[in-house]
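Backbones bend. To wit:
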Amino acid sequence: MKLIALILFCLFSYSSSHANERICGWIMDEPFKEYQEEAKDQHAAFYVVVSDGDCEYGMTIGEKSEEKAKKVAFKNCEKWRKENNIAGKCEPFAVNDKILWEDISFVTNDEGESEYDDSADMVEYEYRTPDWYGQEEIIFPKYKGVPDDVHNLFMETLQYSYIELGEKPIAETHVIIWNEKKSNLKKVAQNWCEVNRGEDFNKECLKVGGGDDKRWFKECVASAYFSPETLKGSIEGNKCWWRGYKNEAWSVAKIVAHEYFHVHQNMKKIFFEDEQRFGVAQYKFNDDMPMWIEEGGAEYFGYYIVGKHNLADYKKIMKQRLKSFRNCAKKGIKLKDVEREEDAFKLRSQCDNGFEYDGGMWATAYLASLSGSNQKVFYDFYEDIAELELKKREEGEIHQGWRESFRKNFKMSYDEFLIEFETFINLKSKEQLKILDQIN
């Protein structure tokens, strides 16, 4: 039975004078997250227009005055609104680091879409072994407008990343990096759709760019995935990701490692180690692994890689991120609050980088310190999920594989860990930093 691709159109609803409108989730994910990270203590503005489910935005950071920032952001937003024929008028969503709209809530709309066949048996799996198995490689085409030294930085970091996790790449992984103004976007779209949707992909994929949102070829794209349809990994992004590589190559490299780890995470969750094959559950495929585990784990891996290979001062960076983590924790934010994507988004304005990132990263470091090694947080935890999920399905429960693997590898239940980690949160910063010395 074929797996039907999951398509989530994540939307934010809000009240005020726009009570019947919704903000598209992709705006809050990459663009607004980047804005929040950079807008603090600067003259900045973020404008949004929403009409009949279509959205656009415009932003600017670092203007001479608040009024100038609002004018520039409005102009940018109106440019994209007109180009994409969206009705309405761009309105200010945030000025500086303050969100102006009130009561933002996250709504998932999967009307008419199904991620699997609900009539399938709980233990029915589609098992496959891809043609590339045993010949894993990084496939990285060069597109016009992407400098050679960016290409080299990516390849070098990817090699550091996959060697940390094994002798070769975790899977056939395609790196699709482009310059939105200079690259041939038709070729980029063709490549992306084939990798993530398969050779017989719906041609609509080419029109919307990247498959699922209209912003794919514009700005602020940095993401990764392992497709359960094609059994291929993909890492994609445009100039917004790598534009600062000349001054902060380590920061770009950190994101490369972070995104590669997402390919690793999602591949391992459906790979059966004992049988050496992939298996995708046909009933309720997607697990409910907390967002902080996925993002925090990738963030921790990214900083570890750049530190290990002397691209940045690891202890210094971790100390800086500890400060952000502590500031969020002082506001009463806990890991439990960022388990779900929609809940994490609501708290973004209260944390510089998002607690699912900073809190998740330090929670991952804490878990690694318990055994004195990164082996379990980088590899063992993910390696055991597929088999344990199938075992729990045979017992009549779904989405328990990650919980069972957590218990097996960290010697406590997930809920017990949340309680234990509260003790760590309340320690002084010097005591918290000491756990890094316990990890070999």
In short: The longest strand covers residues 44-51. The chain has three domains: 9-109, 117-282, 287-440.
